[in-house]
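Minutes, methods subgroup
Present: GH (chair), OT, SY

1. OT presented the first of two proteins processed in the latest run. Sequence and structure tokens recorded below as shown on screen.
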Amino acid sequence: HKGRIVEFFPKSRGRSRSHSPRP
């Protein structure tokens, strides 16, 4: 679930490689 968490929570990893819906 770590790879998908970045998609929903980019701020968690600092926008690693997914779109940034939440700045």
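2. SY then presented the second protein from the same run.
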Amino acid sequence: MINRELIRIKIVQLTYAYYQNGNRNMDNAEKELLFSLSKAYDLYNYLLALIVAITREERHRVDIATQQAQREGTEVPSAKFAYNKFATQLEENKQLNDFMETLKQRWEDDIESVRKLCNQIEQSETYREYMESGNDDYEEDRELWRKLYKQLVQNNVDLDALLEEKSLYWNDDKEIVDTFVLKTIKRFDPANKAKQELLPEYKDEEDKDFARKLFRSTILNGEQYQRYMSENSRNWDFSRLAYMDVVIMQIAIAEMLNFPNIPVSVTINEYVELAKLYSTHRSGGYINGMLDTIARGLVAHGQMMKAMPEPRPRKQFDNGRKNGEHKHAPQPAMQQEGPVVAEKDAPMEPSSDADNGALEQPIEPERNVAEA
């Protein structure tokens, strides 16, 4: 379940935190990274358990309404949604139940939030159409929950706030984890009954190794990677670049140099998107150009054996501009107060939390662009 997109996001957060903390320790920081990634898997299971919690609340409502109808001699309410076949199979899922036994969080502790979601579901057009449908098959039941999740859980501000209160690690995870919950719903097969497999924490050991290696390379070779940036920052004062831009480029260089099977273009595109998410509106264009220049230099000097696309031909500019000056050249985000990276005579060193040997919590930079 934990994919490389999520790993890159966590490494940006943890690298930023690593340099911001006063005392640094590489081993403790790596443990914090892996713990942070494990919390994303907790969230995946917790969101699946939300479907079960909603189903149980609906059954409780149906039971009360049924008892009242029997006393009054009125029509008994439909239990179609309360006993939705997909939700019932998920409720019985052995893997989910075993995992939830290990979690401290329980939806029963936030029953008002569950009830609020039940109300929203009952008021939705999707629910009305489902209840009025004469169909009674598994595919319809599964598709109902896929629609309800997309409509009422995936982009739910109140739910997002509640989850953030539960764990700071979940603040930036839900958008990606939602896609895996939807994928899981789609994969459910009634023939598998309670043994239906959920997504594993890691697809394979290679992704876990990717996280460790990328993070360690980023930190341990940080001074060298920053030197590449400084040498290619052209007319800009490298010491005044926005700190987050430096962190993002440092990780990107580590990925380019240490993972020969990942094309340079893929790496650059991934970190340009992260710059849009975590840094300024100018950062994406500047980082794109800087990383391309650094990559070409590494290839030219035999330090990186990767194919590079042919550079685009230079555009012609008005005579009124200086040679090589772009009309809308991307500008680097500039730090407002003093240098953001260590001076050459004061190299950055690792840190740790003195009390418990772990970073207190990931420092989460302010977002400037919310990606859909």
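Chair's summary of item 2: The CA atoms of residues 46 and 100 lie 8 Å apart.
Next meeting: continue with the remaining queue.
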